[in-house]
Amino acid sequence: MPNNIAVDKQGRIKNRASMSDTNLLLTITILVFFALYAFAVFFLGGSFTKPQSFLNILNNNASLIVLSCGMSIVMITGGIDISVGAVTGLVCMCCAVYLEGHGGNLVTALLIGLGVGLAFGIVQGFLVAHLGIQPFIVSLAGMFFAKGMTTIVSKEPVRVTNESFLAIKNIRVTVPGLGAYNSKTGAYIPAYVEIGVLIALAVVVIMFIVLRWTKLGRSFYAVGGNNQSANMLGINVRRTKFLAHVLCGLLAGLGGILYFLHVGSGDVANGAGDEMNAIAASIIGGTLLTGGVGNILGTFFGVLSLNTIKRIVSSMGFDEAWWSNITVAAMICLFLVIQSVVLIRKNKKRV
Amino acid sequence: MQEGAVLELRGISKFFPGVKALQNVDFTLRAGEVHALMGENGAGKSTLIKCLTGVYPKDEGEIYMAGHDKPVTIRSPQDAQNIGISTVYQEITLCPNLTVAENMYIGRTKGNLTRWKRMNKGAGKILKDLGIPAAPGQQLSSCSIAVQQMVAIARAVDMDCKVLILDEPTSSLDESEVAKLFKLMRDLKARGVGIIFVTHFLDQVYEISDRITVLRDGQLVGEYVIEDMPRVQLVSKMLGKELGDISDIKKASDKAADMTSVPVLEAEQLASAAGIKPFDFSIHKGEVNGFTGLLGSGRSECVRAIFGADRVSGGTVKVNGKSVKIRKPLDAMKQGIGYLPEDRKLDGIIGDLSVRDNIILALQVMKGFFRPFSRAQAEAFADEYIKKLEIKTASSDTPINSLSGGNQQKCIVARWLLTDPVYLILDEPTRGIDVGTKTEIQKLVLELAGEGKSVTFISSETDEMLNTCSRLIVMRDRKVVGELKGEDLNQDMIMSTIAGGEAQ
Amino acid sequence: MTTETKTPVKKKSRSVGEVLKNMTRHQLFIPVAALVLLVLFNLIADPSFFAVSLKENSLGNPVLSGNIISVLDNASELVLLAIGMTLVTASSGGQDISVGAAMAIAGSVIIRLVCGGRVSVDTMQTSLILAVLAGIGVSMLFGAFNGVLVAYLKIQPMVATLILFTAGRSIAAWINNNQLPIVNDQVFKYAGTFIPGIPIPTPVFITILVILAFWLALKFTNLGLYTQSVGINANASRLNGLDPKMIKLLTYVILGACVAVAGFIRVSRSGSINYSRIAENIEMDAILAVALGGNALGGGKFNIYGSILGAYVIQFLTTTLFKYNVPSTALPAYKAVVIILLVVLSAPVVREKMSHIKKSSKRAKEVA
Questions:
Q1: Domains in chain A: boundaries
Q2: What whole-number distance in Å separates Cα of residue C225 and Cα of residue C180?
Q3: What CA–CA distances, in Å, run from A162 to A112, A166, B276, C110?
């Protein structure tokens, strides 16, 4: 019997020593973010010290946060969706044209936006889950379809002048206790966030809950971990994959609306490249490309890290546009290689 | 139903196109016993398990469960679980990225939310009860394979299973892990669970089982109580050979190879990443030898190590007395070694390519990237061997996929003959092919030896080994346990050596 | 004649059916059928589509012009990419989506060397051959980068090439310090336009040369056999002495070379480069060409000529759509529909269902 207890203890000790993959990667991500920001504050100072400049990262990336949440969910199930950026652009354009060109009302416009995203999610989900086509090919086609449709809807940029829209767009929610004094006039300027940020944060919280506590959320992980096993364990793999894509599509629609709220116009260039940013944020946030591992909180910090490093790179004097893309690619590459090496080593260990 | 039985299968048959996989098989499992299901490849063990768990629909027969008046119908693994039949497979069918507790509960709880606290508490209790050294909150992949297997069993136990099927659970476990698993099995037995244990390891069968049911060629050979069944008897039942019932096999006189010369290949303490115990091996010019042992005993891993197919982790190899390094298959090929792999589909044929390309592949690779054979030359090679080995194919342009198993195998043999090897390794060349081709291949082996080539021949059928080999290396549980030659080379000795332990 | 009339009608129709069946089974059926459909459509809609005339271009050289010539000319880059993409697909079972971005890099390297860092030059500062060779070298390096990620780190091809897809155009801009140099030297433009005295566009010749090179390579090396073996069964290939990783890497490097030549043609057409627009969306067309050519996107057996034909069909489609005033930015939408139709039709699930329907309809016929 004492022998048994010893083994039991061993098990527990082991448990304490080794974190789950998800938590390990999440911890790394959060540490990386704080390290980056601390680096920026100490060595670059300037605007990084102002609360508003931190909040502006949120203001500028509310849409990306939502897109990344959707991307992470699909990636956790072992898939990928590279159409989200183009869908964002399409949603912006549809909303703008409807509001401006057809004089539509705001609620319908928003519903159109969500509907477009949902439609992409349903079609792509069906092709991936039920016809077994590679998610990458499906969403690549989706991306090109959305890009093409955007220009079919309107080739010219559409600025929205709808008053009720502008009223919502310009809502500034001040954050109590944060603010800065203007260096010239000495006036106190309270720090603010846009309404989109609140929605994005709500999405993060909701998706975090979904992934952590709902059956559906756990099935995402199970399917990504090993879809044959998941099937054996009594999970409907096809339905789970389908729902992941639908959710991602819906969030892409919502992300499009937030983008629209932020820029206030429809433009062919809207959301361009955001699929890469979303993938990068997810990867940096600790989502494994092979599926099964990931955390929405990590993704949130992934977005923050990504944009912090972009700002660091630009404030270090590399302010040409291309550096931001190269930085993103380098970060994807770095984290991909880390993941791949970790995986290969893990597999070897198991053998 | 019989007294004390939890599960009875009566007259189960299963037909696949052209094959009778199971014919009228009966099987009875009693509460609180470990019942080993034994049989060589193709005996129908896994088909029986799959019929029982609803993976395949059975064609005939009935399944009775204790507590059900009528025969039960099982259409899916889910159905099987619902009536209390749980299966734990050789490969872990859990999700490595989830926690131990989640793996025990996912897919079978009610409600839309995961209640972590309750789940962890429940899991903790079961794990403690069963003495499984894992914490509920631990990620599954951080547990050893044995513990993962136990978690799968714990899940099954918690689903209130009356019948637990363990399908080769020990094949990837080491000795201490097997001991842990057995302890758990004994606990379950004491609780009255009936356990069906499928394995290839004889020692384990004798350690844990109460009864044995033997299948052969889809038919029931018999059910035996373990005490009444000596090992040698069991092996003979599995192989379908009665002791002393062996016709005198005449050895061709020209097979006597010169055993005093320098060996064509000599390996010392060779070991590979596939997990075999280091072994010594040698083969002489014109000799045919073989590895024998039950499936999973490590015979394939040995020859793979010689050919460099698995990562070699130790030992030395000499070819014609000279020390050589064989790290990858090409190294072996350059030494004149050919290897026909055990799994034709996975490792042998290049499916969509033509018969011609499949035949010339090895020689072509040895010749080099920039020196392809001309179409005419390749055609000539292919046609020569199609004729020589009587490969039945529409043309040399036909994709190898569309050939029958036997003809595919002949193509692979042709591939290696074309390289004019000094030493040819044939791992189960006769598996899954028709009888005519089997004898052709055996004849061919003898012919090759007559030409002065050395051959290592592996087959699950002892007859074939005795017909062809002049020396047999016997393996059990991944190590070499004996070598038979001359007088000793007969069924009885092979069986008793395979069985080990209480050999008479 | 007499014997033919004697044969029962039923038998004859069956043989016709069999001929049709064999035709539809042929790998090149889809691209050829698509081409025939496009040709027929244009013939009916407006036969003048096929008119070819000899006109003088801005330099006073007599050159051929017309839609057909423009199809042959404009398809050049796509054909080159399709060739490389076919090899990559065959060996690794995935596609390289960074080819457009990599073309920008190769073009940028060539322009940079030719301009020697200046914004506008009238005569080339570096020998053209050297510049092109450098472009090819750089592009092969990037190909090797992709190849290492795919073969050695075992990252899915499309995800691995995502990195270069994201960064490529920025790297291209960085190479030229984000300037947009212009080469006014007419010799530089020969490769992308016309060589004086020859009325056929030069890219057509370059394409033919490259196709010829691949024909020779497939004939005089084991490139075809090795890539197909590795793509179909990497395990078995390894046991036959091949090095699957090395071969996968090799195909990516070869694609790199194809990309560089395509990039050279593209910058040579205008003598300038626009980093974000050059060869935009061409990766989609290249993948489509491979699929259209009857090659499985999952890898294995390939037919390079199918992909080449596929590329011409796509350009034919593009030119036709242009003729009917479909804006170039909207093209991706149409092509996305085509690609989805193709992959849906070739999806195993759909194929199984279709063969099921065929069988049951056959059975119904037999019963009737």
A1: 28-350
A2: 43
A3: 16, 6, 76, 49
Best residue in A4, A8, A209, A229 for a mutation probing chain B (most B CBs within 10 Å) = A229
Q: Which two tokens stand for residue B324?
A: 């050589």
Q: Which of A127, A147, A155, A320 is the best substitution to test chain C (most C C-beta atoms within 10 A)? A: A147
User: Side chain identity at B97, as an amino acid letter?
Assistant: N
On the question of pLDDT at B42 being above 70, the answer is no
Task: Please name the member of A144, A330, A332 whose beta carbon is closest to the beta carbon of C335.
Answer: A144
* pLDDT number for residue B414: 93
Are the C-beta atoms of B81 and B93 separated by less than 8 Å?
no
Predicted pLDDT at B241? 63
Report the topology of domain B247-336+454-504.
Rossmann fold (3.40.50)
Q: Which residue of A has its CA nearest to C287?
A: A137
Residue among B96, B108, B113 whose CB faces A225 most closely: B96
Q: What chains are in contact with A, requiring at least 3 Cβ pairs below 8 Å? A: B, C
Question: What is the longest distance spanned by two Cα atoms in chain B?
Answer: 76
Mean pLDDT score of chain C, rounded to an integer?
86
Decide if B361 and C229 are in contact by the 8 Å CB cutoff: yes
CATH fold match for the domains B5-229 and B247-336+454-504: yes
Question: Residues B324-380: pLDDT tens digits?
Answer: 999 899 999 999 999 999 888 889 999 889 999 999 999 999 998 999 999 899 999
> Which of the other chains make 3 or more beta carbon contacts under 8 angstroms with chain C?
A, B
Per-residue exposure over C169-196, b if at least 16 CB sit within 10 Å of its own CB, e if not:
bbbbbbbbeeeebbbebeebbebbbbbe
> pLDDT tens across B453-471, in order?
999 999 877 778 888 888 8
B106: nearest CB among A18, A235, A350: A235
In tens, the pLDDT along A317-347 reads 776 777 888 888 888 888 887 777 766 665 5
Q: How far is CA C226 from the centre of its chain?
A: 21
Output the average pLDDT for chain B: 85
Shortest distance between the Cα of B199 and any Cα of chain C, in A, equals 27
CB-CB contact of B449 with B257 (8 Å): yes
In the prediction, which pLDDT does B252 show?
A: 45
In CATH, which of 3.30.110, 1.10.3470, 2.60.120, 3.30.1330 is domain C64-325?
A: 1.10.3470
| Statement: residue A1 has pLDDT above 50 | no
Percent of chain A with pLDDT over 70: 91
In chain B, domain spans: 5-229, 247-336+454-504
Cβ atoms within 10 Å, residue B10: 16
Test A268 with C343 for CB contact under 8 angstroms. no
Listed in sequence order, the residues at least 6 apart from A213 whose beta carbon sits closer than 8 Å to its beta carbon are B113, B114, B116
The pLDDT tens digits for C315-338 are: 998 888 888 888 888 888 888 888
Sequence-ordered list of residues with C-beta below 8 angstroms from that of B228, at least 6 positions apart, any chain: none
Evaluate the CA torsion angle B129, B135, B139, B142 in order and state its sign. negative
What is the C-alpha to C-alpha distance for residues A192 and A172, in angstroms, rounded to an integer? 6
How many A-B residue pairs are in contact by the CB < 8 A criterion? 101
Predicted confidence (pLDDT) at residue C358 exceeds the cutoff of 80: no
pLDDT in tens, B370-394: 999 998 999 999 999 999 888 888 8
A11, A229, A235 ranked by CB distance to B133: nearest: A11
CATH code for the structural domain at B5-229: 3.40.50.300
pLDDT of residue B51 exceeding 80, the answer is yes
ipTM over 0.90: no
Class of the domain covering A28-350: mainly alpha
Given a cut of 60, is residue A348 above it in pLDDT?
Answer: no
Query: What phi and psi, each to the nearest 5 degrees, are found at residue A265?
Result: -155, 160
